[in-house]
Write a structure and sequence with these properties.
5-stranded parallel β-sheet, globular, binds flavin mononucleotide
């Protein structure tokens, strides 16, 4: 059995509706599970279960020896530990990523603060950082109202590549649905391009 962790963070995921990044990432996962029936999907929806910011109380809990932690501190550490455990256990990671203010949603950024832990998901050596989060394929399914190019106003793909690479996840593919708020034909074109990318990734996954 292989595990697929699906993280979604669209603020439009509510009242029976789904954001585009959520919808398209479900389409990708449907294709992946159709090709590999052993894939077990675990979903974490940040809209349903918010990820608290890693504040100073949280960091204090992490730095307090386990036997000296208060009940509240122990709960904080257990929350972060659970996020790390499900990440490390996954063979495939699928991220639904809306573009908010040229970057990733605050809750996805907050998730990164919880899972980047020295000695657990990365370590520093005299040659630099080494990622310890395991070997896995990552798919980032990105939605944006406008069109953003790498090297320009797109800070989503560069940040995701850098952060994921830092924790050792270097096998990363992106699906991008852009221009969603630029009128009907641009939206249709953005969705079609993204679905073409999904089809190409699914074909490559079968090879
Ligand atoms: C708070 C907020 C900030 C946004 N910022 C951007 C932005 O910087 N660039 C952009 O192209 N679209 C921006 N958008 C539009 C979203 O990227 C677009 O609605 C997209 O479909 C969101 O993904 P989703 O459908 O998966 O929720 C923003 C939307 C919201 C709600």
């Amino acid at each position: 059995m292989r595990k697929l962790l699906h993280l979604t963070s669209s603020l439009f995921d509510a009242h029976g509706k789904q954001g585009v990044s959520t919808q398209l990432s479900h389409e990708l996962i449907a294709g992946l599970t159709a090709a590999d029936a052993s894939l077990q999907v675990q979903a974490r929806d940040f809209a349903q279960t918010p990820i608290p910011y890693l504040d100073n109380a949280w960091l204090g809990a992490l730095f307090t020896p386990a036997e000296e932690r208060s009940e509240e501190q122990a709960q904080k550490v257990a929350f972060s530990d659970a996020l790390i455990a499900e990440l490390k256990a996954a063979d495939v990671l699928v991220l639904g990523v809306p573009t908010y203010n040229f970057s990733v949603p605050a809750m996805l950024r907050s998730w990164a603060d919880h899972v980047a832990r020295a000695g657990v998901t990365f370590k520093y050596t005299d040659k630099g950082a080494v990622g310890l989060a395991g070997t896995k394929k990552v798919y980032g399914v990105i939605a944006s109202g406008g069109i953003h190019e790498e090297g320009g106003s797109d800070h989503v793909r560069p940040w995701l590549r850098t952060f994921l690479g830092f924790i050792g996840l270097t096998d990363v593919e992106f699906v991008v649905a852009g221009g969603l708020n630029m009128g009907e034909s641009a939206r249709a074109e953005g969705l079609q391009k993204a679905r073409n990318q999904i089809a190409a990734l699914l074909a490559a996954a079968k090879e």
